[in-house]
Amino acid sequence: MLFGQHDENLAAVESGMDVCISGRGNRAVIEGEAADCEQARSVLQNLYDRLLLGELVSTADVHGVIRMENGTKRSNAEKVSIKPPRTEFGQIEINTKRRIIKPRTPTQARYMEKLRSEQLICGIGPAGTGKTYLAVATAVSKLLQGEVEKIILSRPAVEAGEQLGFLPGDLREKVDPYLTPIYDALHDTLPKGQVEKRLGTGQIEIAPLAFMRGRTLSNAFILLDEAQNTTAMQMKMMLTRLGENSRMVIAGDPSQIDLPAGEPSGLFHALEVLKDLEGISVIRFGPEDVVRHPLVGQIVEAYEVSESKAHGKNKQRSENKN
After folding, report:
1. How far is CA 35 from CA 19, 63, 105, 143, 237, in A?
2. At what angle do helices 8-17 and 59-77 cross, to 10 degrees?
3. CA separation for the pair 24, 170 (Å, rounded)
4. pTM
């Protein structure tokens, strides 16, 4: 189970840690530079510990532990403090009725720690880094533990470039297409039937951002997803909904703004306005934190390089004109 089908887990560790691993019966022999071998040993031990606890180890879990180990190695080289993956890291997890969720990158570990302890958290970064998923999982965990009375999940309905009124059906049928990622996370953390039941009782509320105006959200876990598509006024309105014994997560991807041309993003505006306030935690994800297919991280990085080059060319043209 540790080695994986056709030793695919060992192959992933070899590729990610720059070592050579030979599986011999119930033993794994690791060859390479001493530091790399120690890192690879730590990865395999981490995965084996999970198996001993009865957890399943998927390919995504293997890549996640490798990312955590590489992140620790990189931060040590840069003399940056970060939680190691096998001690304190093991305590950072989200318990839901369907599964135990653990961080797969160092940034996810910091994000999960802030989700657990802070009142207002901003998760900023590209798609596939777990911003929404981990926030929803934390919300479900806190609801099950009785720390909050309800979960409120919201998004600005602008992604498709259409107004809600032009879509068929009642309010929920109009809103659902915009909230599919949130539903996916809910169904992944709650047993079958529980999502619909809690939606029916109001313990879980999913609504477009426009329906938040005029409310005070107390004793709740609030998530504003796709926050890059809010206007400055919408963001101010949402932030000022925070009530007693509530916590709020603002998640957004600055590279995917769908607002009309010339309309500034409320997410950027809020980050600038609130940057000096205490009690607000901002966690920034990068391409290295993408936990979907490994190719997705490379795609995100390639786009960032392309956009950076385009920005440099535009800047040069502007300077030449001047």
Report:
1. 10, 19, 20, 43, 51
2. 20
3. 61
4. 0.73
Beta-carbon contacts of residue 230 (< 8 Å; ≥ 6 apart):
156, 209, 224, 238, 265, 266, 267
Reduce the DSSP state of residue 191 to 3 states and report it: coil
Structure tokens at 282: 């901002």
Q: Is 78 exposed, middle or buried (0-12, 13-18, 19+ CB in 10 A)?
A: exposed
Q: State pLDDT tens for residues 87-137.
A: 334 457 887 777 788 888 889 999 999 998 899 999 999 888 999 999 999
Tokens representing 202 are 């109001």
Give the span between the Cα atoms of 219 and 305, in whole angstroms: 43
Q: Is 318 exposed, middle or buried (0-12, 13-18, 19+ CB in 10 A)?
A: exposed
Mean pLDDT of 268-275: 91
In 3D, which of 272, 271, 274, 154 has the Cα closest to residue 217?
Answer: 154
Between 140 and 170, where is the model more confident? 140
Those residues with Cβ within 8 angstroms of residue 59's Cβ, 6 or more apart along the chain or in another chain = 4, 8, 9, 12
Task: Locate 151 and state its tokens.
Answer: 């979960």
Of 47, 14, 54, the closest CA to residue 30 belongs to 14
DSSP 8-state class, residue 164? G
Distance, CA of 100 to CA of 164 (rounded, Å): 36
CB 56 within 8 A of CB 98: no
Instruction: Tell me if 112 sits within 8 A of 249, measured CB to CB.
Output: no
Confidence bin at 171 (pLDDT 50/70/90) = low
C-alpha 114: how far from its chain's center?
A: 12
Distance CA 236, CA 284 (A): 21
Q: Residue 94 forms beta bridges with which residues? A: 101
